[in-house]
Amino acid sequence: MPLQALDQILEGRRSQPNQLIEVLQDVQKSYGYIPREAIESVSKGLGVPLIEVYRVASFYKAFKLKPSGKHVLTMCAGTACHVRGSGLLLDHAVSQLGVKPGEVTPDGLFSIEHVNCLGACALGPIIAENGSYHHHVTPAKLRKLIETLRSQEVEDAHYDQAQQLPRTGTPAPAAP
Amino acid sequence: MTRLNSYRELEHLRQRLLEQRQTITTTVMVCGGTGCRTSNSQAVIDAVREELTSQGLDGSVRLCVTGCHGFCEQGPVVIIEPGNIFYCHVTPEDAFEIVYQTVMKGEVIERLLYEDPVSGERFKTEGEIPFYKAQERRILSRNRLVDPCSIEDYIAAGGYSALPIVLNGMTPQNIVNEIKASGLRGRGGGGFPTGRKWAECMETPGDEKYVICNADEGDPGAYMDRCVLEGNPHLVLEGMMVGARAVGASKGYIYVRNEYPLAVKNSRIAVEQARELGLLGNNILGTSFSFDVEIARGGGAFVCGESTALMASIEGKVGEPRPKDVHTVVDGLYHQPTTLNNVETWANVPAIILNGSSWFASEGTKGSKGTKILSLTGRVKNTGLVEVAMGTSIREVVFDIGGGSANGNKIRAVQTGGPSGGCLPLDKFDLAVDFDVLAEAGSMIGSGGMVVMDEETCMVDVAKYFLTFLQDESCGKCLPCRVGIDRMLEIITDITEGRGRMEQLDLLEELGDTISQTALCGLGRTAPNPVLSTLRYFRPEYEAHIKEKRCPAGVCKALITYRIDPDKCTGCGVCLRSCVHGAITGQKKEVHVIDTQLCQKCGVCRSECKFDAVQVV
Fold first, then answer.
1. For chain A, which end, N or C, has fewer CB atoms within 10 Å of the first or last residue's CB respectively?
2. Which residues in chain A have Cβ-Cβ distances shorter than 8 Å to B385?
C-alpha cells in the first residue's frame, strides 16, 4: 500500500486526536477502505491508541475495513424506500449476486452496501451504483442494471484481451 | 474578494451587486438539488448553458443552478424569470426550445408546464400549482433565489442583513429575548424552546463557547436539512453567527453527514467565501466580534443525532451519548458551554432578527410557532419537500398538497417523526402539525419526516422495519436499548413469520414501556414508539398475523404466496425468463404457473408483468 497519500492526509493534523474521524474519512476516500497499515500509521500520527482508532473505525458505518467490489450497489433502506418495496430489492440483489451486504463477489466485481438513507426520499426506492443514483427502482430494473453491468465487464474483458491490455478492474483481494 | 471592514462596506457591496445585475433581463433557474440531480438535471444544466452560449446570451441571461425547489417528483425543474414560468420533467433535449422560445421570445411551452393529473389543467407558475398553493414557504422559497455556491447571490438577495443588526445595537440579551419571544422551538426532533437554550448558554461562563449546527440528518425518510444546507448554506451560517453573538461563542461546527457530499461541498465553499469577506474570522465587520466555523463530517451513525453523542464525535471519539444531568449548554463540546441546533432551526433565525419575533409568531399555533418543513414521501402522489404553517392538518398535507394516493390505493396511515415517532391512522388526519398535538397522539413531528402508507403497507412490517433499524443503530451503551430492542424485534419477527402468540402483544407493550422509562438517551427512550403506536392504532392487523396467520397487506413473506391469475396471464413468457429461481413454468401463449416450493417471493415477476397477472395472496 502506498503510504504517500497517508502522509498527505496526516499533514497538519499530527498529534491532534480530535482529527481522528476526519483523517479516517480521507483515508477511506483515498483507498476505498481503511487498510490495517493505515490504522497503525494514523494511531502513531495522531497519538491515539491503536485500539481506539480501531474502535472508531469499526463503530461508524462510513468506514469499511475491507475493500469493496468494482461496482458498489448501495441500497437505500430508508423508510420512504421501504414502504415502496426496497426490502424486495435487497433480497433480489443478494440472490442474484450471491453475496450479503458488506461482502464482495468472488470475481471482485460487485459488492452490496445497505445504508439507512440516501436522502432522495421523494424518488424512492433509490439505489446508488458507485455513487450515481437510480430512482423508482423495481426488482425488474435492478435485475437489468446488474445484467448490464456484468455484460459490460465481459465486453471490456474481451476488448482488453484483443488489445492485449491489462484489465482495468482489479479483483479485490480476499478478505483476511 | 476584498474583506469587508464595516456595515457600510457590506451595504456598498450589496448595492454594487444589485446595479451589476440590472443588465440581466432574464434568469433561468435550474434545480441542482439532490432530487433533481437524481433525475439527471446536470445534463439539463449543461444543455441550457451550451444553448445560451451558442445564442450569444451569456451576458444578458443568467443561468442560476439553485438548490431544491421541493417538488422532487416532478424534477428536473426549471423556472424562468420574468414570468415565473415553471417547467417540470425537463430533459436536455428541451434546452433549445426553452432558450429559443421562452427566453428569447417570452413564449410559454405548454408541454413542459405542470399538468394537474385530475383536471388535466396546466399551470404556468409555481404559485398556481396545488402542491405549492397551500404551502407557506418561508425558508424553502429562498432556495430559488440563490446559487448556493455564490455569496454574492445571497448578499444581493438581502442576505447577511441580520448580522449587522445583531452586531450593531442588539445586546446578547436582546437577541435571546427576541428568539424567546418568537416561540421558535428546535426543528430537529425534541422541540425544545430555542430561546431558553440560548439563554442558559449565554448565562453560563466558559473559556470558549461553541455553537453547533446538527446536519447529521439520520432519520431515514427525511431530507429537508440536506436541502436547506445544500441549497442555501449562507442562511444557515448567518443563523449560526447570530446565535454565536447571543451566547458568546467564538467557534462553530457544522456536523454534516458524509453521505451528503453536496452538502459537505457547499457548506465548505460557503465558509471559505464568508472568511474571504471577513464575515467569519476575527473582528467581523470591524467589530470586536470574532467567530469561525469548521465543517465536521459525520461517520454515519444514527445515534450521533443525539447531542452528546454528536459532540463526542466532533471530538474524534466514538459517538456514544452520556447522561444529561448537566445540560450541554453548560457542559458540552470539550466540556464547554455549547449551543446545538439543527439546520432548519438555524435557518429560521435570520428572518426572526430581520422581521421581528411577532412576524415569526404570526404563523402557527399556541405552542408551535412559524413553519415546518416536511419531507412528504411514500405512497402519495406528490412527493417532495413541503413547508407549511404549524397547525396545518395532516389531511391538508397528504391530500391537498400531496394529491392523495399515488396509484388509487386507499391511504390508511402516515408515519411521522422517523424511528422516534409513530404511525397515525386515517381517522387522526385532522390532527395538526404541532409539537404537542402529535406527541399527545403517540407520535411526534420529529425532524419532519412524513411517510404516507396505504393498504399495501403492513403496519407490523413497518414496526419490524424500525426495530431492525434501531437494533442495528443502538450504540450498545445502555442495557434497556441494547437488549430491550433485541427482544422486541424477536417477538415481532415471530409475529411476521407466523409463530406469534396473543400474549406476546402484552409483552411487547410492557417491554416498550420499560425501555421508554429507562434508556439513557432520547433516541433509546423513544425507540419503542413505532411499535407502541402501531399496536395502539392497528391492533387488528397484529391479530390477523397471529390468529389467522395472514398478512392483510400482502407484505410479510412467510405469510404470503405468489400466484398467476389465469384470467390475466397472456403466456408472454416475460415472467418465466425473469425468474432467477426457475420457479415459473408454462408454454408460450398458455397460462404460466408458479411453483410455490421454488418461489423465493422476490417480486421480480410481479414487477416485470405488464398485465398485472402476478398476484400476492
1. C
2. 122
B473-511: per-residue pLDDT in tens? Answer: 888 889 999 999 999 999 999 999 999 999 999 999 999
Residues in contact with B613: Cβ distance below 8 Å, sequence separation at least 6, in sequence order: B564, B565, B568, B569, B570, B575
Write the single-letter amino acid at A51.
Answer: I
How many domains are there within chain A? 2
- B200 SS3 class: helix
DSSP string, B68-119: --S-GGG-S-EEEETTTEEE-S--GGGHHHIIIIIIHH----GGGBEE-TTT
Which residues of chain A lie closer than 8 angstroms to B493, CB-CB? Answer: none
d(CA B526, CA B165): 40
Place of cell 421454488: B598
Judged by DSSP in three states, B412 sits in strand
Task: Tell me if B300 and A140 make a contact (CB, 8 A cut-off).
Answer: no
Torsional class of B401: left (φ above 0), alpha (ψ -120 to 50), beta (otherwise): alpha
B-proximal residues of A, 82-101, CB under 8 Å? 82-85, 87-88, 91-92, 95-96
Give the range of the structural domain holding residue A39, as residue numbers without chain letter.
4-59
Classify residue A31: in a domain, yes or no.
yes
Grid coordinates representing A175? 478478505
Looking at the structure, do residues A102 and A52 belong to the same domain, yes or no? no
Q: Which residues contact B380 (CB under 8 A, 6 or more apart)?
A: B398, B402, B403, B404, B405, B406, B411, B452
Q: Is residue A66 part of a domain?
A: no
Return the C-alpha cell found at B532. 407502541
- Give the C-alpha separation, B316 to A48, whole Å: 10
Whole-angstrom CA distances from B50 to B44, B56, B95, B148, B434 are 10, 10, 9, 21, 47
- Is the minimum CB–CB distance between A62 and chain B shorter than 8 Å? yes
Instruction: Say whether both A51 and A96 belong to one domain.
Output: no
d(CA A27, CA A6) in angstroms, rounded, equals: 7
Q: Is the ipTM of this complex over 0.90?
A: no
Domains of chain B: 24-131 (3.40.30.10), 151-360 (3.40.50.11540), 371-454 (3.10.20.600), 459-547 (1.20.1440.230), 561-616 (3.30.70.20)
